[in-house]
Input
Amino acid sequence: MDLIIETPADARKALRDVISEVARAVVGYEQTIFDFMVALSAGEHILLEGVPGIAKTTLSKSVAKAMAIDFNRIQFTQDLLPTDITGHNYYNQLTKQFEMRKGPVFTELLLADEINRAPPKTQSALLESMQEKQVTIEGSTLKLPELFMVVATLNPIETEGVYPLPEAQIDRFMLKIKMDYPDEDDELTILSLKNLFEEEPQSVMTRENVLQLRKLCFNVHAHRSILTYINGITRATRSRENVELGLSPRGGIHLLESSKGRALLSGRPYVIPDDVKAMAHAVMDHRLMLSPEAELEGLTAGGITESILSEVPVPKGDFGEDKKR
Output
């Protein structure tokens, strides 16, 4: 019988099924897969940071496989051109006409591998697609697939041959997820699996299920006090002396959307303050631009986020009481 996701309980079960399937190829990283699913449920994009060789690409491919959605990968390099991403018009010698050749951006899950290796002009080729889910090629605007999502990877130790991401692009990524080395037991399991025949993840969801997830995520209830709480956190980032650039309104929206996604995948139809606090670092840390003085003092974006969370009053009460009928 086909899977139908109609309730938060269904969404929670689907999450467990995805984690179980991805575990065939990637050991550990359950929290990373959870956050991945949060972004997918909200229809937003992810920055995935980790050193080489910890399965960032394998994780992305496995999640796409488990949900039966299309997957493309672009290796970003210094000589990559914007048209290598979006596509271009070319002259067909056989038909004597110009035809459009669509680029790899026309997919449902796009892995932008080592995105900061390409110059800003090439990186900016993703701006329109990430915000509008469309691409303009030589004056023609084309819609991208409904499920379009970007997962961009970063190597935290690279300093040469890389370019900083423009602030406008950073702000379009809902979450920045950090993948650390696996723990000792997980790494031993990885070695054991490589000593056996490797199993491929099987599809446990469909495109229709992903659309059902997104509809449920949108309908997760956020009490007025939760909206006030998120607004208080957002505005607090802009009044800090040691923060040059705080959260944009889009950042506040992403904090709300990710909190809804966490509530849904936890099996709840409404947001609680713990959802907001749990998603705050992944939403906020990569957006906060600290002043030079703050960096000299050893302050970090994560520390600023933690400080703000400790200062903004946490709402109390029944957060599902005024749920929309």
